[in-house]
Amino acid sequence: MFATVGAAFAIGAFEYTVGSAARMGPGYFPLMVGVLLTVLGLAVTVSALGARPGGDGDPVGKIAWKPLGFVIGANLVFGVLLAGLRSIDLPAMGLIVAVYALVVMSCKAGSTFSLKSALMLATILAVGSYLIFILGLKLQFQVWPTFIGG
Fold first, then answer.
1. Phi and psi dihedrals of 100, rounded to 5?
2. Which of 23-32, 87-96, 140-149 shows the lowest mean pLDDT across its residues?
3. Cβ atoms of residues 74 and 101 within 8 Å
4. I need a surface site. Which of 14, 88, 114, 118 has the fewest CB within 10 A?
5. Within this chain, do residues 119 and 69 fall inside the same structural domain, yes or no?
6. pLDDT, tens only, 1-50
7. What pLDDT does 57 receive?
8. Are residues 84 and 125 in the same domain?
9. Are the beta carbons of 100 and 122 closer than 8 angstroms?
């Protein structure tokens, strides 16, 4: 995966002027990151293929579908709530609602779930996100749902 993504970035970098180390163009950094990522991916692949079967590692277990579904689903719900979904006439619910949904849904992925701790974590993350992204970086996110007026 590393090698494939790195190669794609390296090839895509040639769409821009690459330049040289002394006079870097806009394609120089993506090219270097892509090359390094490709080399890293190839090194991991070679070391994995050279490993002896029955080595000192643990066997790979079954895929944990419940946590996987909750974490991926939480990210999808976050995106939909943050931006809205025009195809079903769902308005943007804003950053605060999206963060709460993300955290509560992600917490459901664990073996134990406490709504109280999930809401405390969501509150800390929502306040932190507001302070950093809205006040600090001045990003233009909708903070509250449209019907609240924000």
1. -60, -45
2. 140-149
3. yes
4. 88
5. yes
6. 889 988 998 898 888 888 888 888 888 888 899 999 999 999 998 887 77
7. 66
8. yes
9. yes
Burial status of residue 3 (CB atoms within 10 A of its CB: 0-12, 13-18, 19 or more): middle
CA distances from residue 22 to 19, 28, 85, 86, 141 in whole angstroms, order as listed: 8, 11, 46, 48, 38
Model-level pTM greater than 0.70? no
Q: Is the pLDDT of residue 73 over 90?
A: yes
| 70 and 40 both lie in a single domain | no
Tell me how far the alpha carbon of residue 140 is from its chain's centroid.
Answer: 20
When divided into structural domains, the chain yields a total of: 2
pLDDT at 150 over 50: no
Query: Does one domain contain both 38 and 85?
Result: no
100: burial class by Cβ within 10 Å (0-12, 13-18, 19+)? Answer: buried
Cα 80 from Cα 102, distance rounded (Å)? 11
* Claim to verify: residue 120 and residue 70 sit in the same structural domain: yes
Full domain range(s) for residue 12: 2-49
Tell me whether residue 59 is in a domain: no
